Each structure stands twice: as structure tokens, then as C-alpha cells.
Task: inverse folding
């Protein structure tokens, strides 16, 4: 619960303060956000499964975002940034979809 | 009486018996990566921690193991930081980008580059003036080098010149198609009364032959490096595309040049263009006209040949030789132009 409340507080803070993002990391924001969404859906599903854990959620959130951004950065350095971005988005997208389906089954029993 | 070895053997035989038909390969075995992604989308960490905690709570009598206070604080701080990062990442993505249409961007770039080019040309002019000043200072006048330099600069197009001139205007026939609306890559159709490069070449050559000392077409100075040629429907003079009407300025004795030009083959050619194709042309003398310096006077490969020294009459290649230099220097533009 602490994690969920803290996350909400952080989002509100960010919306209020609107801090500037350095231009160097801006290309990695979309992929980082997709990774964060994946972690969020995973956390939600874990809550419904009754196995949610604050620490696991936070660690998976941070590592998801960092690893996704790093993969894209690496791809950019190697000249295959677009392809790697696509790969990351496909994998994360499938995960988000399956998690959303699991959440749906929990909520609607269907 | 259980012999371990026999036991092992029996085991192996049992294994062997079970082995011949290994579990049938799943039809989608080659897609384990996708299966892994699709069937286990939840972070296994959740299940692991849950299992560990359940085991701990079963093992110890003290109910569910609660995380320590410091862990809770760390989690709270981490969660706030994560939320902040998320919002920070999302906000700029939602901001409408200041998209500019390509056409506007291109036209802005064209203006930009044009200004840059103008500034560079201005810089060239000022640097050239500086060079001239330094040169004049460095050269002593008693050897006549300054006068020689002046003549060479006029002849080579390095400096702007003024003087009496013949002003010759050449324009497409009124029936000619619109050069802008037409397909610029289509180089057909000189017969519809459009002025083409050859017309301009002949006219300019006629003016050189009539005694012009400096010629410019639409303010582009003709030098020994400047060509007049077609590129599609546009005429390039010294690589610069020009639009009709073409205004040829030829510095020289205006009255004499007009007479000589009218008598020359070029004059007759021009008259033929006017009569047969409706090309519009006018020739007039003016008392004072200005011909600009050439924008680009740079030799990449040519270097002055060593002076021959015996005065063979070739004033251009041996400007040091005395006697013939004066006459050759003055005539140089005319000779130069004749070969164009």
C-alpha cells in the first residue's frame, strides 16, 4: 500500500512541479513510460492475486524503466535503435496485454 | 540381497524403457520465447517473495513477518521518486511539439542560407578591398607594378569597373512559354522564341569582338572562368541561374562598339533572332555603367608559369616582359572573350 500511495504522491508532485527533462534523455522517455506501464499492470495483477509486495514492485518498476531505456540507448549507439525499440515495445506490449487480461478475469470473472 | 550395481542397472533399464518415447515435442516448442512472454507475464519475484513470506509465517509462530520500519520508509521514498519520474517522463511527451510544416521550414532555410551567402559575399568584398590596400602599399610605384596590377585586375574581373557602356537587353519572344510555369527539366523548344545559351554566347562574343573591356550579364561579371550555358530552361552564367530579360552591360567606347556590333556576325545573328523568332532585343549606349567584380575568382590548379623572359609577345603569360606588356594587357579582355 505504501508503494501505491507513494506513487500517487509522486505523480501529483510531478504534475504540479513539471520539472524539466534534459534533452539527452528525451528519446528514451516513451520506452521508459511503456516499461513503467508494464510494471504498473504487473503490480495491479499481483494485488489481485494477493501476492503484492512493495519492494518487488518498486524494484521491478525501476529496473524495467532503466533496462528498457538502456536497451534503446544501446540500440541507438549500434545503429539499430528503432528495431530494438520495436522489440522492447512488442515484448512489453504483450506483457501488458496478458496482465490486463488477468486483471479482467479477476474483476469480472470472465 | 540388493546389489547396488544391479539396482542401478535396473534403474537405467527403467530409464531406458521410459526414454524411447520422450515426451512429445510441443508443436510450438520453437516459440518458447513468445510463450515465456505470454504465459508468465507477472514478475516471478512476486510469487517468490510471497512463497518465502508464507513459509516464514508458517515456520515462526509470530504470524506474518512484517517488513521493518526502515524498509517501509525506503519503499515510500522510492515510490514517490518513481511516481515523480513517471510524471516527469509523461508530461513532456504530452506537450504538443512545435511542428513546422516542411515547406515553411525549407523556405526559412532558403532565406537563412541566402542571408549567409550575402554575408559571405560582403565579407569577400571587404577582404578583397583589404588585400588591394595591402598590395598597393607593398608595391612601389616606380616599377609600374601598381598600374600593371590595376590592369590585370580589370582584365581578370577581380575589381568592379565603371565607364561608358553598351546596354543590350535580350528577352524571350512574347509568345514564348512561361519559363517558371514550364517544366524546368524540359530543354526542348528553343524554336518557340526563348533565348537560349547560344544566343547569349554569340551576343556576348560579338560585344567582346566589338571592343568591350568588361562584360556582365545580369550583374554577373564574365571572366575567363565564367561560362554561359543552359541548364534545362534556365541559363547559367558563371553557375548562377538567370531569368529573362537578360541585361548585358559591356564597358567600352559606346558609339564605336554599337557600330561594330551591328556590322558583325553577332549583330546579324541578333537581327535574325528578332525577325524570325520574335526575340525582343534593344541596344543602347550609356555614358556611365558599372560592372561588378566576379563573385568567385579562385584557381584551384592553375599556377603562374615561370616567366619566359624573352618577350615573345604573350603578355598574359609573361607579364614581367617589358615593351609588349602594355598593349597586350589592354587587349587581353578582347582576346579572352574571342575564344569564348
Result:
Amino acid at each position: 500500500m505504501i508503494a501505491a500511495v507513494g506513487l500517487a504522491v509522486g505523480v501529483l508532485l510531478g504534475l504540479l512541479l513539471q520539472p524539466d527533462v534534459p534533452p539527452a534523455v528525451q528519446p528514451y522517455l516513451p520506452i521508459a513510460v511503456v516499461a513503467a506501464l508494464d510494471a504498473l499492470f504487473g503490480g495491479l495483477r499481483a494485488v489481485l492475486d494477493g501476492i503484492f509486495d512493495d519492494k518487488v514492485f518498486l524494484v521491478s518498476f525501476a529496473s524495467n524503466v532503466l533496462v528498457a531505456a538502456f536497451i534503446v540507448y544501446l540500440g541507438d549507439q549500434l545503429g539499430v535503435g528503432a528495431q530494438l525499440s520495436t522489440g522492447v515495445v512488442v515484448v512489453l506490449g504483450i506483457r501488458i496485454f496478458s496482465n490486463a487480461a488477468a486483471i479482467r478475469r479477476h474483476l469480472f470473472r470472465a | 540381497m540388493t546389489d547396488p550395481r544391479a539396482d542401478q542397472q535396473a534403474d537405467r533399464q527403467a530409464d531406458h524403457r521410459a526414454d524411447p518415447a520422450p515426451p512429445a515435442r510441443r508443436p510450438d516448442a520453437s516459440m518458447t520465447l513468445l510463450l515465456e512472454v505470454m504465459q508468465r507475464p507477472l514478475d516471478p519475484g512476486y510469487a517468490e517473495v510471497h512463497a518465502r513470506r508464507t513459509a516464514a509465517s508458517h515456520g515462526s509462530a509470530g504470524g506474518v513477518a512484517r517488513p521493518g520500519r526502515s524498509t517501509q520508509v525506503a519503499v515510500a521514498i522510492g515510490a514517490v521518486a518513481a511516481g515523480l519520474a513517471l510524471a516527469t517522463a509523461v508530461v513532456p511527451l504530452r506537450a504538443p511539439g512545435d511542428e513546422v510544416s516542411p515547406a515553411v521550414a525549407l523556405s526559412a532555410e532558403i532565406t537563412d542560407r541566402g542571408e549567409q551567402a550575402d554575408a559571405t559575399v560582403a565579407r569577400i568584398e571587404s577582404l578583397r578591398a583589404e588585400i588591394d590596400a595591402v598590395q598597393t602599399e607593398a608595391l612601389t610605384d616606380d616599377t609600374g607594378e601598381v598600374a600593371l596590377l590595376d590592369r590585370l585586375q580589370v582584365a581578370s574581373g577581380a575589381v568592379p569597373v565603371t565607364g561608358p557602356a553598351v546596354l543590350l537587353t535580350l528577352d524571350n519572344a512574347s509568345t514564348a512559354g512561361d519559363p517558371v510555369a514550364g517544366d524546368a527539366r524540359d530543354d526542348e523548344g528553343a524554336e518557340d522564341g526563348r533565348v537560349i545559351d547560344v544566343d547569349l554566347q554569340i551576343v556576348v562574343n560579338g560585344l567582346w569582338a566589338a571592343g568591350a573591356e568588361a562584360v556582365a550579364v545580369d550583374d554577373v561579371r564574365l571572366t575567363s572562368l565564367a561560362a554561359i550555358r543552359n541548364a534545362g530552361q534556365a541559363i547559367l552564367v558563371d553557375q548562377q541561374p538567370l531569368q529573362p530579360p537578360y541585361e548585358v552591360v559591356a564597358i567600352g567606347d559606346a558609339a564605336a562598339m554599337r557600330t561594330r556590333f551591328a556590322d558583325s556576325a553577332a549583330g546579324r545573328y541578333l537581327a535574325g533572332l528578332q525577325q524570325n523568332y520574335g526575340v525582343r532585343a534593344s541596344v543602347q549606349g550609356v555614358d556611365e555603367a558599372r560592372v561588378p567584380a566576379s563573385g568567385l575568382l579562385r584557381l584551384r590548379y592553375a599556377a603562374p608559369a615561370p616567366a619566359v623572359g624573352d618577350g615573345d609577345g604573350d603578355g598574359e603569360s609573361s607579364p614581367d616582359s617589358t615593351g609588349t606588356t602594355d598593349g597586350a594587357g589592354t587587349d587581353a579582355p578582347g582576346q579572352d572573350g574571342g575564344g569564348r
Summary: The mean pLDDT of chain A is 85.
